[in-house]
From TrEMBL:
Pfam families: ABC_tran. The keyword Nucleotide-binding applies. Keywords: ATP-binding, Nucleotide-binding, Transport. Residues 13-247 form the ABC transporter domain. SMART domains: AAA. It comes from Streptomyces demainii. It comes from the Bacteria. InterPro entries: AAA+_ATPase, ABC_transporter-like_ATP-bd, ABC_transporter-like_CS, P-loop_NTPase. Belongs to the ABC transporter superfamily. This is ABC-type proline/glycine betaine transport system ATPase subunit.
Length: 253
């Protein structure tokens, strides 16, 4: 069992000996102990089926652990009301997952409205976030199909930030856009993080993306095993080169 403790700051998210088993015998996560501090970006990286998305989804109870404890801000997530927990955690997925029948402004305002904010306040917050993520104000009147893929991902980030959650979960959020737009979105995330200092858990298959974005990189292997968690300069395997990818990927399967 690999235990990862990050620095001396307050732990926002904690996994204590967490496992996830399915009825068909599959072990998605195996005895994971991992502590993530406030205000940093932790990137979970590894091959398909290694448990990184399952790990992320246990934070907001989209998946519940079979054993062990997942805590957010010192509270076991299983003791929280699932809907209430999710409203307090931002969640960004690939291809944004926007409501096609709602305007962009109303998509962003979704969680504040669920929390009981008035429509005027929720829309005002949505308008602020449009500017924050670099979209023009008039895009708020449009519908998702009228925006490019990169613009939709920016809306997805804005929606996740709408209620100002302390934790932001990002599950391969930039995986479906072209390389140029992906770089732009990575830059935007780093800019936003510099301003907002959220506790971010970011899942990716892309080693270069992990190194570029992460304050820490947690490397998983098939079977849900955490094999290392460290800052990018200290992370095994060596720095992100073609030879790294070539040597690491087969071992991760």
């Amino acid at each position: 069992m690999t235990i990862c403790r990050q620095g001396k700051g307050k732990r926002m998210i904690s996994f204590k000996d967490v496992s996830k088993h399915y009825p068909n015998g599959t072990t998605a996560v195996d005895h994971l102990s991992l502590e993530l501090p406030e205000g940093g970006i932790t990137v979970l990286v590894g091959s398909s089926g290694c448990g990184k998305t399952t790990t992320l989804r246990m934070v907001n109870r989209m998946v519940e652990p079979s054993s062990g404890t997942v805590s957010v801000d010192g509270r076991d997530v299983l003791e929280a009301d699932a809907a209430e927990l999710r409203r307090g955690i931002g969640y960004v997925i690939q291809q944004a997952g926007l409501f096609p029948h709602r305007t962009i402004l109303d998509n962003i305002a979704t969680v504040p409205l669920l929390l009981g904010w008035g429509r005027r306040k929720a829309r005002a917050r949505a308008a602020e976030l449009l500017e924050l993520v670099g979209l023009p104000a008039d895009s708020g009147k449009r519908y998702p199909h009228q925006l490019s893929g990169g613009q939709q991902q920016r809306v997805g980030v804005a929606r996740a930030l709408a209620a100002d959650p302390p934790v932001l979960l990002m599950d391969e959020p930039f995986g479906a856009v072209d390389p140029v737009v992906r770089t732009q979105l990575q830059n935007e995330l780093l800019r936003l993080q510099g301003e907002l200092r959220k506790t971010v858990v970011f899942v990716t298959h892309d080693i270069d993306e992990a190194v570029r974005l992460g304050d820490r990189i947690a490397v998983f292997r098939t079977g849900g095993h955490l094999v290392q968690c460290a800052p990018p300069p200290n992370c095994w395997p060596p720095p992100p080169t073609t030879s790294w990818r070539a040597s690491w990927a087969p071992n991760a399967d």
